[in-house]
Amino acid sequence: MFTGIVQEIGIVEEAKSLNGGGMEFRISCSFADTCHVDESIAVNGACHTVTAFGPNTFTVQSVEETLRKTSMGDLQKGTEVNLERSLTLQKGIEGHLVQGHVDITGTISSMEKEETGWLIGVEYPDEFSNMIVGRGSITMEGISLTIAREEGNEFVVAIIPYTWEHTNLHTKKIGDKVNLEFDVIGKYVVKYLANLDKGKA
């Protein structure tokens, strides 16, 4: 479990394909030497398990299903990634409850610089429109954000300067994929109501 508050920007030092499918990533960050094998770390919002670590880097693997559901397959050496270590009982929930289970990828459709921040528009598959609620929470690239407005199969989020500078959003451009995780409570409500309609609840 995570909060959607990015702790640090990591750098992909190595990205390689694994025999039989999947990929392995070696990522540098300041806390690598305090990691442990089996630790959960969200990389661009996708929960991964640490398989190895050293003084400056840790290693994770993405299986085929992760590559299908996320943008992890697009990562290359030198790519900046958002990192968050898993939530502990001593840590405040400053964003919202995030599972690190990416639902789909969206595509950046617009980026508008305002006086004090940025507006980023994201297109997503229309069948997920019941998961998007104006002023509701969404996780994008592992960042807990509030939906500023929605229209059709596109939503807009407002990015403050601190978030712009301290996440990988400043590296994005129109057409880039972003990992999206919908609010977990909202997903259960939608599923419950769907089952009501089918007479299953």
Overview of the structural elements:
This protein is mainly β and 201 residues long. It has helices at residues 64-69, 161-166, 184-197, and strands at 8-17, 23-28, 40-43, 46-53, 57-62, 80-85, 104-113, 118-123, 137-140, 143-151, 154-159, 177-182. The chain has a six-stranded antiparallel beta barrel. Strands 7-8-11-10-9-12 form a six-stranded antiparallel β-barrel. It is globular. The two termini are 27 Å apart.
Features:
12 strands; single chain; 201 residues; six-stranded antiparallel barrel; mainly beta
> Could you estimate the helical fraction of the residues in percent?
10-25%
Strand order of the largest sheet: 1-2-5-4-3-6
Which class best fits the helix and strand makeup?
A: mainly beta
Could you report the average pLDDT, rounded to the nearest whole number? 93
How would you describe the shape? globular
How would a crystallographer describe the biggest sheet?
A: 6 strands, antiparallel, barrel
**Spatial gap, N to C terminus:** 27 Å
Q: What is the tally of beta strands? A: 12
Strand content: 35-45%
Tell me the series of helices and strands, N- to C-terminal: EEEEEHEEEEEEHEH
Q: What's the number of helices?
A: 3
Radius of gyration: 17 Å
Task: Summarize the topology.
Layout: E1 8-17, E2 23-28, E3 40-43, E4 46-53, E5 57-62, H1 64-69, E6 80-85, E7 104-113, E8 118-123, E9 137-140, E10 143-151, E11 154-159, H2 161-166, E12 177-182, H3 184-197
Antiparallel strand pairs: 1-2, 1-6, 2-5, 3-4, 3-6, 4-5, 7-8, 7-12, 8-11, 9-10, 9-12, 10-11
